[in-house]
Each structure stands twice: as structure tokens, then as C-alpha cells.
Write a structure and sequence with these properties.
mainly alpha, elongated, 4 helices
Amino acid sequence: MLSKWLDEHKLWREKGEAAEAVVVRHGEGRQELSWIWKVEFQMETSPDVVDKAVHGWTVEAIRLEWLHTKASLQRFEREMILLEVESACVERTIRHYEKVWRVRATDWAAKGLRDEVFQT
């Protein structure tokens, strides 16, 4: 992950700021490496091989948990955007049908049918 990030930063330095600005408008471009990948965790370990392996796995587990949490947050944010868009569509649909039924009611009233329809 770190090497991919370094390669990406090198690429954008070579392309220049103008090219990066164009790509950023489309949601791409250089990504900031999160703090969790830059931190070296300090744990008390003995020179024992088992302790070193446990330390490595612990650091990796913390980073994986962070990635899972970040992905969950991104899914939640996308879902919120979709719900906002859907609610706007529902509101527009209801307003459309309101207009349709108001026109029908006006037409019925003009034809004298309104009272007959509402009596049943």
C-alpha cells in the first residue's frame, strides 16, 4: 500500500499541478496517505521471535480494522447520498401527481362530474 502511494505521488509530481487539478475535478488524483500507515506502533517486545511475530500481526490487525471502518463509513456516506436523491425524486413525483389530479378535478368540475365522483 505504501509503495503504491509513493508511486502515485511520484506520478503526480511528474505530471504537474495543472494535470492534477483537472483529474481532481473528476474525483481522482493524488490521495493523502492516512496517518495510520505512517505510524510505527511502539510495543514492549523482547527479542524473541514469537513476540516479534505477534507485534507484526497486531500492527497489521489494527490497520485492517481501520480499513474496514473507513470502508464502512464510505458505504454509509454513499447510502446517505442515494437516500437524499431518492427522497428528492419522491417529492417531485408526488408534486407531479398532485398537478395531474388537480387538472383532473378542474376538468371534472368543468364537466359537472365532480359531485358525482365524490358521492360514491
